Amino acid sequence: MTSTKVSIAGVELKNPVMTASGTFGSGEEFSEYYSLDSLGAVVTKGVASEPWPGNPVPRIAETYGGMLNAIGLQNPGIDVFLQRDLPLLRKSDTKIVVNVCGRTEEDYVKVVERLSGEPVDLLEINVSCPNVKEGGIAFGQNPGALQHITEEVKKHAAQPVIMKLSPNVTDIAEMARAAEAGGADAVSLINTLTGMKIDIYRRTFTLANRTGGLSGPAIRPVAVRMVYQAAHAVKLPVIGMGGITCAEDAIEFMMAGATAVAVGTANFMNPFAASDIARGITRFMVEQGIEDIRDIIGAAC
Amino acid sequence: MKYLENCRIVSQEEISPGIFDMNLQTADIAGICRPGQFVMVYPQDGKRILPRPISICGADPESRTLRLVYRVTGPNTGTGEFSGYVSGDMIRISGPMGNGFDMDISGDETVLIAGGGIGIPPMLFTARNLNCKKVIVLGYRSDTFLAGEFGQNGDVFIATEDGSCGTPGNVLDAIRENGLKADRVYACGPKPMLRALASWAEANGIPCYISLEERMACGIGACLSCVCGSRETDAHTNVRNKRVCKDGPVFLSTEVEL
Q: Domains plus CATH for chain B?
């Protein structure tokens, strides 16, 4: 019997495949293609205490084997999320991870407190969005600031807390340790890499925001390396992501040390990607004679 | 319900410089799509990861063939890749996407169908499926691709920027020169054309429905890449913008910022 179950901070996932925040809404749209029951967890798009309008368009640009985005964390705010999106997502048999964004410490705390009595399994704190001027990344590039925000969130959180780390730092191991010192229950990485594209015909920036976050298959080797470093720096479970497009990519992250993985940009390349990857992992296990998925976590040494 | 299909290309030809006419054999999509909707077409070259939104020019619910007429946007583009495919090749598409035009119009009403440039193909599908009086206005730079196919669907007026056919100028010039009137407007084309049509319709007190385009990633309303400004707070986004792919691409001109 093949077991694909993994556990993140005491929350058992039926398989290690999650969706990466911002690429999957709150799941409703993708459920027009397939049942979300096939996923280990759905990670929602970032939710703030108030509605956020996001950045001007163009918000995305394709690059070689990847894409830049600067959506700017547009979201309808926690009230609409709780009234409309969460009840819809609850209909699926999958774990729910709510991604929380904010501009100030108080913003994060407000959302976390609102979620405390709600049927949510895990919180993912976005301290790594490169596309908003305040908050986000300001907390995610300095170990002291990261440890502090983690401590504050943990004081008010009812659910286990995943800190989502930015790759736009000098030493990812130091950041992972800061999250651990702050009391995080898990870390997820990588968020997008800051990039830029120039429209050579218009002699200006392709994105209205000038810079954006690079994602997609082009960033995968960077992500695998950082997941490996983070997994070896802390005892916390690591959720690995960055350019995963197939089951083999997901397994690569797990062998680098990830307990679970998240599929992001690949959802745009194939709307069934996350579901296909979950199935592909089982196929790989059967072919390779692996009975328990946990046996491959950190297998690369 | 949305479908992802691997389709066989039935035919493809270049009907005007840089404009390609592709017919695909679908399993389900051509049987359920409506005028004004679009499909996402997936490049196969791994360096291009995002599907391209392409409007539907025609669909035969019987044979389930789907017709896409698109412009190649430049060298090293996804549309450039698509244009290299020949009949027998396979291509992946997903859809149908978006809301489409309201086809439930009473026979007494006159709809002014306006298309500009590569905004013309979806208006052919629309013209063929609307059961009411129709006035058709098409704006081109020069070559009047697809114009001949509009003929059976109503009176056709053409404007060309180089004056080689019809009214010299744009769609609005053709409307004014011919003193055209209608009860509502359905349009797809470049933003300046849509802006001009919207203000013409507003001045005449008639509703104007416009099909917008924007860079997209998911095509289903999840990623929020393709928003346009809305005049009021949108019911779904809870801010003043709407998702072009899901809430549109067809909007009433007075509900969006053009």
A: 3-97 (2.40.30.10), 101-210 (3.40.50.80), 212-258 (2.10.240.10)
* Interchain proximity A74–B224, CB inside 8 Å: yes
Domains of chain A from N-terminus onward:
6-296 (3.20.20.70)
Q: With bands split at pLDDT 50, 70 and 90, how would you rate the model's confidence at A167?
A: very high
pLDDT at residue number A285: 98
Per-residue DSSP letters for A224-251?
HHHHHHHHHH-SS-EEEESS--SHHHHH
Give the residue from A260, A98, A109 showing the smallest Cα distance to A187: A260
CA–CA dist A156, A167 (Å, integer)? 26
For residue A268, report the phi and psi dihedrals to the nearest 5 degrees: -85, -30
Predicted structure pTM score: 0.96
ipTM of this complex prediction, to 2 decimal places: 0.95
- Whether the per-residue pLDDT at A130 is higher than 80: the answer is no
Residues B3, A272 contacting (CB under 8 angstroms): no
Query: DSSP assignment, residue A292?
Result: B
Does residue A246 carry a catalytic annotation? no
The single-letter DSSP state of residue A36 is G
Q: Kindly report, residue by residue over A107-128, the tens digit of the pLDDT.
A: 999 999 999 999 999 999 999 8
Question: Does residue B205 sit at the A interface (CB-CB below 8 Å)?
Answer: no
Omega before A58 cis (within 30°)?
A: yes
Residue B244: closest C-alpha in chain A: A57
What is the arithmetic mean of pLDDT over B44-50? 96
State whether residue B236 sits within 8 Å of chain A by CB.
Answer: yes
pLDDT in tens, A246-289: 999 999 999 999 999 999 999 999 999 999 999 999 999 999 99
Name the nearest CA neighbour of B188 among B71, B78, B101, B128.
B101
CB-CB neighbors (< 8 A) of B220 in chain A: 29-30, 32, 271
Residue with tokens 């976590």, as numbered in its chain: A297
- For residue A117 the two structure tokens come to 């009595």
In the prediction, which pLDDT does A131 show?
65
